Amino acid sequence: MSAINTNVEHFEYDNKIVRNFALASIIFAIVGLLVGVLIATQLFMPSANFTQYFTFGRIRALHTNAVIFAFVGNAIFAGMYYSLQRLCKARLYSDLLSKIHFWGWQLIILSAAITLPLGLSTSKEYAELEWPIDVAIALIWVVFGINMFGTILKRRERHLYVAIWFYIATFVTVAMLHIVNSLAIPVSWTKSYSIYAGVQDALVQWWYGHNAVAFFLTTPFLGLMYYYLPKMANRPVYSYKLSILHFWSLIFLYIWAGPHHLLYTSLPDWAQSLGTVFSIMLIAPSWGGMINGLLTLRGAWDSVREDPRLKMMVVGITAYGMATFEGPMLSLKNINAIAHYTDWIPAHVHVGALGWNGFLSFAIMYYMIPKIYGNQMFSKKLMNAHFWLGTLGILFWAVPMYIAGFTQGMMWKEFTAEGNLKYASFLETTLQIIPMYMMRALGGVFYLSGALIGAYNIFKTMLAGKLIANEAAQAPALEKVFVAQGSDTYWHRWLERKPMPLLVGALVVVAIGSMIELMPTLMVKSNVPTIASVMPYTPLELEGRDLYIREGCVSCHSQMIRPFRSETERYGEYSKAGEFVYDHPFLWGSKRTGPDLHREGGKYPDSWHYHHMREPSSMSPGSIMPAYDWLLSQKLNIADTKNKLKAMKTLGVPYDDYAIAHGEEDLKIQAKGIADNLAKEGIKVTPDKEIIALIAYLQRIGTDIKKGQQ
To answer: Which of 99, 131, 329, 615 could form a disulfide with 192 if both were Cys (CB 3.0 to 4.6 A apart)?
Structure first.
């Protein structure tokens, strides 16, 4: 070993960038939660859909993006940049890159806030943003990565602490997930089509969707937990060896679990089974992390009673444990058969989102802000009030939704003694759970109220102090040393000192599962058998499908009939993989607030759909669906129809040159036919209106096969 290093270097931590991300996180927490309360209200009060730009279908994606990427995303960057500098004993690599990262991320969020209410959406869950914004996300993520690795490489601390392992895995995996899932063919600056179709698109999307939860909402927060919890409790992490096991097993197993979102769908059985097996195994590393966190508090539980930050951490870590136990349980087919498409799933998600992500984010703010402002939090009482309101909010949100979800699952499957569906009308189940929706909205108000108190407390703390923008620090310069090979952790000690091999190792570990899971379905045709009678959409139907995507109908309606007697009795023949080969993107949905639509085509006359969109309750008394009356008056934009057909042809959809050249002409002929049908029933509407295209699409869905056709 070398002699003690006396070459002490002086430097400064950049607290300004931490402050900026923290402020953005707090502001967007209020915005995201406010939109959440609004959409919760819309589900029992349709009149709250007060404009076409703020309907549930459009702003649900605004809520998820605002909470995940704006509130939580900014909190992640604030927490990482604060901890990374102190763990590396170095200022961030580049002040310029820090500023580009901050302002670039806020511009991306602003772009999402503008485009999603306008209906500019890919419809892919947690990845709804259109391609120019996706490109911007990739570029800013690279800026973040360069800044992070530059800081690590110039560190004065030899050992890469466990938190940094999780930061590295987050960077490399999110980059891979985002790029692969976002691949699309642009039609214009505001429209694109996923390069994947149907079953393949569903698999790639939920490989992304599940692992967006894993590597954006879990791994960075585990890294933050490993740094901030010991700091708050003034205790070392419970087990170093457990943290090694936790890290590598978690990132390896998590990446395989995405197909459990697609059980009993048209996804090949082998992929479904693979997702289930790895989901069950995922309990071990997930609970390993929870246990490592909670046992770090051994001997410090008196502090938990007194410190609101530790209360939040404990409830957050416990919520993580609950959610990561429930997830594998929901991947069991017998449980999934009841829970999937019900409100059980949002309840499960929000236990993690509100408890784990929300509480940890605020606890970290409560720790960082006084540190960088050189004072104490303005009010401990307000911190406690925030904690209890937030906890009540979680309970009032989740418990009613668990009840609602189980009620839905049971009612959908119940038969009478005579063998008929007991609740044949889907609306009967919806009306039964409206009181639960009201309680959920109340829970959202509680949680939002706590966040408002937290924001006030933090702003008052800032006003009472002064930002230490450049915090003075010192540390010895880094010198080479050698680790004794006889130690049982030699291999990992070596790895912890080599950030680039650690990066490569993490990439290899997550890539293994990704390739084995995705490649067979993307490359082997027998995984997605075709059906000869399935034809591409007509130009008018394609435009109608894009309107369906614009209005966010997939948020409430699935297009996937599972092979259960209860579903085939209610909706019709179960869905086949070959029916979706021309669907760019897939529209299977993940939640049924309304009935499944995969056999909607030909079920009702055109006039029924017209009146249903004009005033849903006129066709379905008691419906909570909002009116879409603007579709009746707005003119269909067909300026990009030819380009859409060309893009689809590029993706392998068999449109010939004649069909593309005469696309607009064929569209107008089909539109006139629908308008004439409506006129026969006394409905006067010109063929150029959006409602005509939407009716064309709805009347087409699921009509390509006859009952029993394979």
So the answer is: 131
